[in-house]
Description:
CATH topology of the largest domain: Pseudouridine synthase
Order of helices and strands: HEHHEEEEHEHEEEEEEHEE
Largest sheet: 9 strands, mixed
CATH superfamily of the largest domain: Pseudouridine synthase
Distance between the termini: 58 Å
Radius of gyration: 21 Å
CATH architecture of the largest domain: 2-Layer Sandwich
Mean pLDDT: 90
Number of strands: 14
Helix content: 10-25%
CATH class of the largest domain: Alpha Beta
Number of domains: 3
Number of helices: 6
Low-confidence stretches: 1-10
Amino acid sequence: xxxxxxxxxxxxxxxxxxxxxxxxxxxxxxxxxxxxSRDRAREWIQSGRVTVNQKYRPxxxxxxQGDRVQLRELPIPKEFEPLPNPNLALDVRHEDExxxxxxxxxxxxxxxxxxxxxxTLVNALVARDPTLHGVGYGPTEPGILHRLDRWTSGLVIVAxxxxxxxxxxxxxxxxxxxxxxxxxxxxxxxxxxTLNHPIADHPADPKRVVVVDRADSALTKRARPAxxxxxxxxxxxxxxxxxxxxxxxxxxHATRHQVRAHLAHAGHPLLGDATYGGPPMPxxxxxxxxxxxxxxxHPKTGFTLEIxxxxxxxxxxxxx
Length: 320
């Protein structure tokens, strides 16, 4: 039985009763919290917005009678249409009647997290084209084929029609959309090489992922395949014996934090990536990662479309 929302507002805490003992945490949330689907519960658990007895637990954690499940905030309805914001600039790198390729700046979210958010890439897109509503995975991210982290800049593919979206989605799922990234990292990674360790959600920190490199690891069953190809690496700076390299990688089917985690696991964390042990970037927030190229088959013409987006300053200056 779902608790009335008024009964959950005080502290956003839900007690576990005997009848729910042995229930997975993600399933428990979906059963007990309004506007919380199973997929949404997993997202919240991974992002650190849920604790059990004040401790982070994985989505597979089995709750037991007497546990107290805490939510950082109450969920709002996920099915909402983002508000247009005509005051946001939209940097378009390609546009036709079927597809856009646009540049997302560093620091901007790809889509809104709540109905009041108006400063995301999606808010700019729907201001430019209101017909995007109804296209894509769901109402909150109309037309968006793939996301970028808030601090990752670069190219995002946007479908203008549902048939175009489905065509592009099939390409994405089979790894046929080529995506290249530019990054700055500590040290000089060997190149060319392929980093192909699978990646799983971190068992103790929902804000991170972990690279699984042992066959007997308990995380193996939950790990996702991941392949990051290091195309080239060149040293661009050395300060007090610490070398910084500009690296070009390809990750056609990148899972969450894949490039960042793979490079860190290889001993070359990205600059500014405190989550994975990267050295700081003076006076700049966030990590040095840029989605610099996409190459895919146009959903209507069948021709190959390649769009490049050189890494912009100040994160990627000519000389560091």
